[in-house]
């Protein structure tokens, strides 16, 4: 029987994995989760793609226990679903989950900004990240930009003393991330807009302009929702 499109994508994905990706000295489940989540968010594993648990365990050289731990976490984020007689597949992008994720993330990021402004936190540690984002904007490299964007927002949360804000945001924004990357791939000018918002945000925080920083962050996080609702 010929392979379905979903199975073909899964086979290509498996070819990009190998045992060297796993550090056996630290917990394996979280590493598999991060590997798969990135593939899903970057659309290297597109919606409806089948993920063969047995084959992935074989390719990575791991038992199925840590793999199932990773699957459970991804399922909790709505990124993997199970279908009868098919198994685990990448969930279709769900507009309701996009909106939900953005609403929750917006509240979390707003709190981070308020704390940073109130504490007059030194954010010089963001300069190397912004420099790499600027390079990504010039190259119109939306994948690199996204990776540094993740680092930017994670660093803000940790600098505020509320690292859980980032962990919670990460757990709800997977569908919005897929939508955002799809938009960026089609319209690279979105990279420059997002980068400029980062620069304006840092300037507002540095000057203690709480309301302005909050407004910029709201606009920044809402950008995906505004685009898909047009």
CATH superfamily of the largest domain: GntR ligand-binding domain-like
As laid out across the biggest beta sheet, the strand order is: 1-2
Which CATH architecture of the largest domain is right? Up-down Bundle
Mean pLDDT score = 90
Figure out the total of helices. Answer: 11
Q: Indicate the structural class.
A: mainly alpha
Low-confidence runs (pLDDT<50, min 5 residues)? none
What is the CATH fold-level name of the largest domain?
Four Helix Bundle (Hemerythrin (Met), subunit A)
The strand count comes to 2
> Given this structure, which CATH class of the largest domain is correct?
Mainly Alpha
Description:
This protein is mainly α and 230 residues long. It folds into two domains: 5-90, Orthogonal Bundle (Arc Repressor Mutant, subunit A); 95-228, Up-down Bundle (Four Helix Bundle (Hemerythrin (Met), subunit A)). The chain has helices at 5-15, 28-41, 53-60, 64-76, 95-119, 127-139, 142-159, 163-172, 174-186, 189-206, 210-228, and strands at 80-83, 87-90. Strands 1-2 form a two-stranded antiparallel sheet. Strand 1 (80-83) and strand 2 form a beta hairpin.
